[in-house]
Amino acid sequence: MLNQKLDIFDLRKIQVTQTKSELENMGKRQQKEITSDMLGTFVAVDRDPVKTIQITEANMITELLSLRHQRMITNRFAFFRGTAELMEHDLKQQYQSHLPVIICGDAHVNNFGFYASPERKLLFGLNDFDEARIGNWESDLKRLLVSAELAGEENNFTQEDLYQLLQITAKTYRHTIKNANKMSLSQLFYFSFDYETMGRAIESFGDISTQMQTVLNKVLKKSQRSNSEEIIQKMATVNNQGQLVFQDNPPRARHLSAIRYQQIVEGYNKYCKNIRQDVRVLLANFHISDIIRYSVGVGSFGTRCYLLMLTGNDGSHIVLQIKEAMPLRYNMLSLPVQQVIKNGGIAGQRIVTAQRVLQSSSDPFLGSTTFGGRSYYIRQFRDMKESINVSKLDFESFQFYCQTCAYLLAMAHFQSPTAPMIRGYLKHQKKLDSLLANWALKYVDQVTKDYELFKQAIANGKLIK
Length: 465
Hints:
The protein is an alpha+beta fold. The protein has helices spanning 20-33, 36-39, 49-57, 65-72, 76-82, 84-91, 137-154, 159-180, 185-189, 195-205, 210-225, 228-235, 258-274, 277-283, 329-332, 337-344, 347-358, 395-413, 420-426, 432-459, and strands at residues 100-103, 112-116, 122-126, 133-136, 236-238, 244-246, 253-254, 286-294, 305-312, 317-324, 367-371, 374-380. It folds into two domains: 18-225 and 387-459, no CATH class; 228-380, no CATH class. The strands form four sheets. It has a six-stranded antiparallel beta sheet, sandwiched between helices. The longest helix has 28 residues, at 432-459.
C-alpha cells in the first residue's frame, strides 16, 4: 500500500485490513525508510513558473485573467494562493512520506473559515477542497507552514517570531495527531469544531488575546446576518419587467447567453435528482429566478462560477453557487491529457466526497453535477460563511490562529482509516517541528523567485496585464 501511486482520487487507496496497532507499526517502519531529516530536506526545483501558470490558465475564462493577475500580483502571499500548481509540482520533487490520507491539497491559512452546520451552529474548519485528493499528509502541513510565513511577513512580524510560530504550528499538528489516535472511531466521526469549541481550543494553546476574542465576537455577530436574503439585498435589483434579478458588474459578474442559461438549468435539474431526499423536497418549493456568472477567490478566479437565485412559493430566497470543478492541478502537470480529461469529468464528485470527509459537518445543499462537458459542484453561497482576516491580527492572535488551523488539519487527516500510520511515523519525532519550519523558509525563497518572474511576465506581456 505504501508504494501506490497517489495521482487519482480512489478511496480504495485508504482502505485497510490492519488493526490500529499494526498501522502504527507500519508508520514506524516508514519513518526508517523516509526519515524526518529527509522529509525536512528541501530539494531544489528546476521549472518555468510562468509556463506552468499558462497551462493552468488555458482552462480558464480569458476575459477574467486580467483581474485574476491583478489579485495575484498584490503580494507574494496572494501569488502563492493563486498558484497551487507550482507547489504541487515541487512537492513531487521532495522526499515524501508515502502515507496516504485524504488531504485538502491547498491548506493555506486563508482556506480555513466559519460555516454553518445543518443545525445552524457556527463551525470552523477547512473550506476549500478544489485540490482535495489522496496524498501525503505532509503536503498539507507544508503548505500551511509556507502560507503562515508569507502572511506573517506581510504583517511585518519579525523573522525570529515567525520561526518560532512555524515550529509551534508543526508541534500542534503533531500533538493533535497523537491525541486523535486515542479517540474511538465514533468519536472521530462525530467530531465537531463549533464556535465554542474553538474558543476552548485556543485557550488550551495559551491565554487568549483580547484582540482574538474581539475578532471571534465580531465573526459570530456578522455570521448571523450572512444568508441568502442579505445577498439578494446587496446583489439584486428589479429590472424593467419588474423582475428581481442579479446586477451585472462585468467582467466579474455578467448575465449569460440563452444557451448557457439552459445548460445550467439542466445541470441544476440533474443536481436535484441526486441531492439528499430532504433537500430535494425543500427545493421543490423553489424555482429559478435568475442566473449570473460570478467569479470569486484568487486561485479559482477565472474558472466558471455561477450564482442561482431561487425563489420560494412564499417569496423567500436561496442563493446557490455552482462552481466549476477543475481537474486536479496535481494531475494536469503530470498525467496524459486524456487521463486528465477523464478525471475532470468526475471532479465535482471528488470535491464533494472530500469535503464531507474533511469537514466535521457539511452544507446539506452540497452536491455535484455536469453540463456543457464540464464538472461542477453546488453549495449554498455565503450562508453563515465568514473568515478571519489574518492581515488584521497581531502576532499573538496570528499564532493562535495558525495553531487552530494545524489542529483542524490534523483532525481532518485523521478521518482517513490510514491515519494511525501518521501517528506511528511522528512518534518521538520532536525534531520534525524545526525541520519542517526550515523547509518552509527555504520554500518561501522559491515563492519569492517565482513571484518576481511572474511580475516580469506581466510587464513583458507574456501574461495578460
